[in-house]
Design goal:
Layout: H1 2-26, E1 32-35, H2 36-44, E2 49-52, E3 54-57, E4 60-61, E5 65-67, H3 78-85, E6 91-93, E7 95-96, E8 100-103, E9 106-108, E10 111-112, E11 117-118, E12 122-123, E13 128-129, E14 133-134, E15 139-140, E16 144-145, E17 150-151, E18 155-156, E19 161-162, E20 166-167, E21 172-173, E22 177-178, E23 183-184, E24 188-189, E25 194-195, E26 199-200, E27 205-206, E28 210-211, E29 216-217, E30 221-222, E31 227-228, E32 232-233, E33 238-242, E34 249-250, E35 254-255, E36 260-263
Amino acid sequence: MEEANILKTTATLIFMALLMAEIASSAPLAREVIQASEILARIERGEPVFVNNLIVEGNLDYSGFEIDLSTTVGVGGSEAALELLGSHQAKRPKRISSPIAITNSEIRGDVNFDKITFIDAVNFAGTSFAGNASFDEARFEDQAAFLYAKFRGDASFKAASFNDRAYFSGDHFGGRADFEGAQFKRLAGFSYAKFSEEADFQGARFGNEACFGGAQFKEDADFGGTEFGGFAYFGRARFSGSSRLGEARFADIANFYSARLADAG
């Protein structure tokens, strides 16, 4: 029964990845342009963001901290305000409460959502990131969907927390992919993802199913110290470089059916 559920989950991830590929390929060539600043303004106003088949021009940078004035009493003058701005204790991580969906689009700039907490669902399925994309130390409280996304630059999710399902199936990582120290509490899907450069999963924690079926690692993949708390599926995965999977910890079944490992040590 458990094996049937695992196979069903894997089949669902593959189907979703293929569906996103079909949607992306059938999208019209002509695309309208929306400025990144407009999207950032919507987020700042707490409005939902729904963008499909558009060109996003500019950098999407919503990183860092916001100032929490309520934590300080008696701020009245400009000198006190300046002191507040320099106080680390008066800062808190930014939170985005509204859903974000930028799908089948092209972002022509860098993306930076470091240290951001996403309360609602995030969807970048079928979207191409022309620059670097960074979600370091971000927290995803709801589902995070990056199905069939293309990262042409570096993609960094270092120390990110995924508290719901995370989908990276069918993704193409053209630059370095950094998931060092990332935490996946529920299903993590990387089926048929392609890693053109180094993929770093060192110290990552998968609390539930981790699906890497059919994934391709063109360069080194670092799974040293990675913890797999649930079923780990690497069927038909291809490792052209080292993997350090021998240093990973598996608490449940690990399936490497027809996988090719150049160096498992």
